[in-house]
Design a protein that fits this description.
The protein is an all-alpha fold. Helix content is 79%, strand content 0%. Helix 5 crosses helix 8 and helix 7 crosses helix 8.
């Protein structure tokens, strides 16, 4: 098990290195001059050249990359080309908002998917199981931003139970923080919960057909007792893998949901930076999102090894 985790950690480190190169090169080949964008169309060539030198973008690409990635490892993401503010502190603040949103959305998705998926599998030959499967299929087709708009219309505009947007830090007013997080988390979690329900149903259904569950029932256990004691852990192995992919999807979906609910997260920061062509800020945000996705996959691999005893015993 230790050797397997060490291998996955090495793959993670290599993946981060390759991803950093890919992100840097992608931003480098984009058309447009950051110095020209920062100064405007009326800037003189001499001033543009001086600004390019100040930004450090007149150096060879290899030099620029190692200078940038070396500073990133120390927490220095540079200064914005447009506002000249430090990017690192902004990333930390915005990342906290996004993590709260993604974490809450994940909790909602799991709380929906595990009981409903298990119920749909256990009742797959009954009308109730078919109804749950149909509703989950319908939920898969609903985009997160549309779910957010519908939730705002119902719970914020008509019922006036929850705010339609905005952000209150948890250390200022925890009650308002929770109220403001409910609708964004639901808009993310409901859609992803519908997707995850399908996988939970499939995994539990496959587990119910295994011989060891038949043996457990033959020994006197009720079907739900056999499933709870012996089946759910085995069914969790493929579900954990899918959940890791869902977390990555939640990170991407948060970009749009943050805009719908006016949340100051990484998604809003990314869209604003793209609109102003602040390429260095975009570069830092994309790198953070890519590393977060790779980290999620690494954690899923570790959990996969911890859950499945066959992997712990394998050489």
């Amino acid at each position: 098990m230790t050797l397997r985790i060490a291998r996955r950690a090495a793959i993670f480190v290599v993946s981060v290195a390759v991803a950093s190169v890919a992100v840097f090169l992608f931003m480098a080949v984009l058309p447009g001059d950051p110095a020209q964008v920062a100064l405007g169309v009326n800037a003189t060539p001499d001033l543009v050249a001086k600004t390019r030198h100040d930004f450090g973008i007149d150096r060879p690409l290899v030099t620029q990359y190692f200078s940038w990635i070396g500073n990133v490892f120390t927490g220095d993401f540079g200064r914005s080309y447009v506002t000249r503010d430090l990017i690192g502190p902004q990333l930390v603040d915005r990342l906290g908002v996004t993590l709260w949103l993604v974490g809450a959305g994940t909790v909602v998705a799991v709380l929906i998917a595990v009981p409903l998926g298990t119920f749909a599998a256990a009742r797959h030959r009954k009308a109730s199981g078919a109804v749950v499967s149909g509703l989950s299929q319908l939920g898969v087709a609903v985009p997160a931003f549309l779910a957010g708009i519908l939730l705002v219309q119902i719970f914020a505009v008509q019922l006036r139970w929850l705010p339609s947007g905005g952000w209150t830090p948890p250390n200022q007013d925890f009650g308002e923080f929770v109220r403001g997080l409910v609708l964004p988390a639901l808009s993310l979690g409901l859609v992803q919960g519908a997707v995850l329900t399908r996988y939970v149903r499939s995994a539990v259904l496959d587990t119910l057909r295994e011989d060891y569950l038949r043996t457990a029932r033959a020994k006197g256990l009720l079907p739900w007792q056999a499933l709870m004691r012996h089946g759910l852990r085995n069914a969790a192995v493929p579900v954990v893998t899918v959940l890791g992919l869902q977390l990555t999807t939640l990170l991407i979906g948060a970009v749009v949901v943050e805009r719908v609910f006016v949340l100051p997260g990484l998604g809003s920061m990314l869209l604003d930076s793209v609109a102003s062509r602040d390429l260095l800020t975009v570069q830092g945000i994309v790198l953070v999102l890519v590393v977060a996705a790779l980290l999620v996959n690494f954690v899923v691999d570790v959990l996969y090894t911890a859950i499945d005893p066959r992997l712990r015993r394998s050489r």
